[in-house]
Amino acid sequence: MTLSYDATTGTDRAEQRDVPPLSLDDVVRVSGQVRTAIEQVIEGKRASIDLALAVLLAEGHLLVEDVPGVGKTMLAKALGRSIDCAVRRIQFTPDLLPSDITGVSIFNAETREFEFKPGGVFANIVVGDEINRASPKTQSALLESMEERQVSVDGTTYALTPPFMVVATQNPIEMEGTYPLPEAQRDRFMARIEMGYPTPTSELDMLDTHGSADPLAELPPVTDGVVVSGLIEAVKAVYVAPAVKQYLVGIVNATRNSRDLRLGASPRATLQLLRISRAWAALAGRDYVSPDDVAELAVQVLAHRVIPSAEAQLARRTAPDIIAHLVRAVPLPDRR
Amino acid sequence: MKDTDRSALAVAIAMVLASFVLHPLTQDSSYLGLSWVLIVLLGVVSVVLRRLHANSAVVFGAQLGVWAVATLVIAAQLPAVRSETGLFDHVGALFGSAVGHMQTQSAPMTPNDGVKLLFVSCLALIAVLTDLLVLGLRRPALGLAPTATVFLIPALGLGQDTGIGPFLLIGFGYLAVLIAEGLNANARWTRGLSRDSADEHGTADPVVWRAAAYIGLPALVLVTVLGMLLPTISLGGFGFGNGPGNGGGPIQLADPTLDLKRNLTEPRNRPVLEYRTDNNDPLYLRLASLPAFSRAGWTNAQTPLQQGPDFPAVPGMADTDTRQRSTRITVTDFASEYLPMPYAPRSVDVQGSWGIDPNSLVMVSSNRNPRARADASNGLTYTVQSVDIDPTAADLAASGVGTPVDSETTLAVPSDLPPRITELAKRITASGDTASAKAALLQAYFRSTKNFTYSTAPQPGSGYQALTNFLFEDKKGYCEQFAASMALMARIVGIPSRVAVGFLPGERDGDHWTVSVKDMHAWPELYFSGYGWVRYEPTPSSVTGTAPAWSVRGTTPSQSESDSEPSTRATTRSQPSAPASNRANEQQTAPVTQAPTHPLRNVLIGLAVLVGLAVLAAPASIRIRRRGHRFDRDREPSEQVEGAWSEVRDTVIDYGGSWPSGSPRTIGAQVGDRLEPSESEAMGRLAVLVERSRYAQTFDDDLDRELSAMTSEIRRGLAEPQPWHRRMAALLVPRSVFRGLLRFRRRT
Description:
Chain A: Residues 254-323 form the ChlI/MoxR AAA lid domain. Chain A: One of its GO terms (molecular function) is ATP hydrolysis activity. Chain A: InterPro entries: ATPase_AAA-3, CbbQ/NirQ/NorQ/GpvN, ChlI/MoxR_AAA_lid, P-loop_NTPase. Chain A: It is an enzyme of class 3 (hydrolase). The complex is a heterodimer of chains A (336) and B (748). Chain A is an alpha/beta fold and 336 residues long. Helix content of chain A is 46%, strand content 18%. Chain A has 2 domains: 2-8 and 16-212, P-loop containing nucleotide triphosphate hydrolases (Rossmann fold, 3-Layer(aba) Sandwich), CATH 3.40.50; 238-329, Helicase, Ruva Protein, domain 3 (Orthogonal Bundle), CATH 1.10.8. Chain A is built from 14 helices and 15 strands. Chain A starts with a strand and ends in a 7-residue tail after the last helix. Chain B is 52% helix and 11% strand. In chain B, strand 8 and strand 9 form a beta hairpin. Chain B starts with a helix and ends with a helix. At the A-B interface, helix 12 of A face helix 24 and helix 25 of B.
């Protein structure tokens, strides 16, 4: 039995709401509004915001990785807040149980029936905070919901309403009390971004805005889940020329043949790189993907999926460096 | 063989070859052997030290030391100039004497000890420098520079064509250095290969030898052949053409007019030669003919010499069956490299090695030794068979001006000639209607005692100044001024002319004629069709007696006939009344048969120039054609965009810029950075258009006008900051045309 569970209203929902047909201009306009809204909260992180938006429009999940306190959670929450949809935040801790994420069936003494109490994943945007602090068992509970966009509890499958996006934050794995995220789960994230420290000017601005009140509380939603679903549909219409597809496959293939990498990118990575390239082109208002889009996104999409070889690690070459190097080496398609 | 051994050997070979270049400078080249010993010694030093892994600086220092010691040792062996002074002073004195010797001697000189030491020392030092460039600094391509300096010594010092030999010597030496470097390069990259792989595929060394054989040698041959077609490299030394064929390059002829002035002003008259001829007529004996006129005056022109004893056809003379006159001449006291002969000689029976200038029929000693050459005529007794050029005034009036083979020399009037000379020539000849009439008017003008005074002490001066002085100012001169002025004025009025130098007939002394040193004389020769070079006599009669019969203007042919002296000249002509039309026909074909090589050579030069121009113009025309094709409106929009993109790319490359790699947008941004804002914006738009045409689903913009406007704006922006020479280079030698080649080179 498959049920559609409306996270917004908290009720079962039989009918699908109509998704309005939207154009590329709407993508540019709405994403611009969202970007402006988020920038009120986070200064000087234009690139991270754009990438988060692209992941949202490409129906992917985002992994934000950096040291504590640089605004990972703030970005995730601001994204959720600026879109009028259900946002849940799950703080991952070592004692978090899988059922806390998926939900649990509890016996209702009054109705004498088991009643499903949905877990934290039932939302449009799920902020998984410090995801690598939870045990691998709990982490893997996210697996099914992220890939299948559904949750199975006690033999019943609950579908998650679109848009659905997991924004997970994690501390660098070298830090204390962390479990490294398994490769299979890393592969499910469309892109990984690193926030990085703000520039001194951004940090000064931040002192002014964040000094007294909580700007997140004042952030008004600028759009809603239905519109976002419409935007996702619009992005799917972006054209990808055969030459660009070839280029994309060439890059992914290069990761598999590189001597610097022990594990190359998966075919899922190929698909996701294609989808996020479409979203990236749409955000720029283009109805076609250019090789530049692919090249720009390759590091963010591929770097967290690959494992550098021992030699590369000894030579202090990080995965992003290796991917960037590979992208430069793949010849650009000349003609259509 | 190690890398360094190979290169050192090549350097030694190149230097030994280069040393031969100095050979024509001196009469005695035995010192070259010593320089070879030194070159080999330096090579051994280089090889041994480099085998011991010595630093390049150490090798260079050691070689310099060997060079210095060797120079001193050789100097110490030479007889001292001032034996009481120290060794260094001795070397300095030797070098000083060498410089002094070279300044006073002309090549080929007799080398003194200083010159030998200087040459050996220089060659060794150049060997050290070449070794430093090729082995020390590993720049074998620059190894040409020091050896080329050796080439410059004869090229600058001889003051004449060096011939093809030195060039080939240097070229082969350089080729040897390059071959060694090619073999070394192979050795370097095949060093890591296992023996097996080398056995299976062979080595790459044959490629180097083949490259040398297929590229290097043909290049040398091609340059030689092209050089042969161009007039600047003389091939006399190798027996090509009509050269005397005894090696070493052309002979430098002395200026006969120098003797003229000296002999005429000599205080004591003395007999120089005697001659006796059929009927014992008086004869003008000619030494040389100067065909070239320039600012400096009348000079020799360089022509390849032919071997005697028989002379080539008389230039421009139609009658071939004229009776020959036999003259026996004994030179008693006259040293010259020219042989005194009546004009026009047909054959001569003379001792020694002589060459014949086919244009002037002058006979020149082809002895290599300058001293022997300068004395060649002295004491000779010889017999000349000659024909007389003695048309009647009527014949000459009937014939027109001819065109001699060397008309480009004998008709040339310098453009910077003072205009008053031209005006004077036109004024004198205004009443003459035919060429012979004009010539007669000129001669009469000069012979008139009202106009000029004969004097062997004219105002000093040279060139134009001397001419204007003679013609307009003091109006005094001797035969040289008269002859030079008349010849020049004849050219101005369109008659080919030259100045002959020789002797007046002299005095009759019983059965022979005696010519004295004061009989030296100069006279103009003018060219008429059917007769060739005809003698005129503008020098006043006080010195020369009566003018030649044909040169005096007669009102009617019959009158001039009767006026002419009752000389035997008129009767020596067997057919004085040969039909003029017949002659005219013959003279037209005459120049071609005389020297068949010349027109062919001109055609070849013309062809070579045409081919050269075509080759030069080819890149530019290819480029322009490409551009036209790219903006063809009939093509697909996407192709038009790609065409515009390629055009911008080629323009960037033409101006020496680099075309970035990457996507259109990246390239657009990078190239845009080099441009002004508005042009940069156009570049950005073009880049987006290219991106869309390549990667978007549909591309059907109406770009007709926009695209070409955009492209020309970008091209303008690219051209503006370039200096003019870069723009010219981009127009004439567009690098984009050679892009394929460049790319190939980068890949290899």
